[in-house]
Structure formats: structure tokens, C-alpha cells
Amino acid sequence: MNKLEQAIGDMYNIQDDIDTLIYAIGDSPRKYTEDELLNMLIGMKQFHQTWYDKLWVEYENFRREYDAFDEDDMFDQNYSRNKEFNEQEFDKNLEKELYKK
After folding, report:
1. How far apart are CA 80 and CA 67, in angstroms?
2. What 8-state DSSP symbol labels residue 66?
């Protein structure tokens, strides 16, 4: 699995965190204080932001590695001004990366 796929998969973790919080609120024999529950939410929020940041970095790294830039995107224009995008080469590299074992 490449880093981009791993980063995408990490985004799923928020569901497990929400399930745990639901348990803490509704089914746990221990009654958590409001502060404890809020701290859980704050932690979940920070984890989710970190996973998102990591995903974005891996997405950008993937685009650079395979020269996958959008001509209409002003940020891509700055990076790839002197590069010509080869769609066939991109597709070939994408398939190779996705099916790598």
C-alpha cells in the first residue's frame, strides 16, 4: 500500500473514535464528566485535522511524483509551467502504483 492509500485509510479512523465516544456517553458503566467528554472531542478534532493534513501532503507528493497537474489550477501552473503533462504516462504510473504489492 502506498502512502497516499494509507493516508486515505487513516481518515476512516474518525468513525472508530466516534463509536468510542458514543459508548462513553451512552453505554459505559462509568459516567464521564462533561470535561472528560469535551477533552475526548477536542482530541478527536485534532487527530482528524492531523490525518487530513497528512492526506493532503501525500496527495501533493503523489501529484508531483506523477506530474499530475491541472492546467486550470493557478498553483499547478506555477509548479508545472515548464513541464508538459503526459496523460498516458500518468495513467501507466498510476496503475503501476495502485497495483503494486
Report:
1. 8
2. T
Q: What is the mean pLDDT of the chain?
A: 83
> Which residue type occupies 12?
Y
CB atoms within 10 A of CB 76: 16
Nearest in space to 3 (alpha carbons), one of 49, 59, 45: 59
Task: Give the C-alpha separation, 51 to 9, whole Å.
Answer: 10
DSSP assigned state of 24:
I
Judge whether 21 and 44 are in contact, CB under 8 Å. Answer: yes
Hunting for cell 478527536 — which residue is that? Answer: 44
Cα–Cα distance for residue pair 77/30, rounded to 1 Å = 56
pLDDT > 70: percent of the chain: 81
| Whole-number Å distance between alpha carbons of 47 and 38 | 14
Q: What is the pLDDT of residues 14-53, one digit of tens each?
A: 999 999 999 999 999 999 999 999 999 999 999 999 999 9
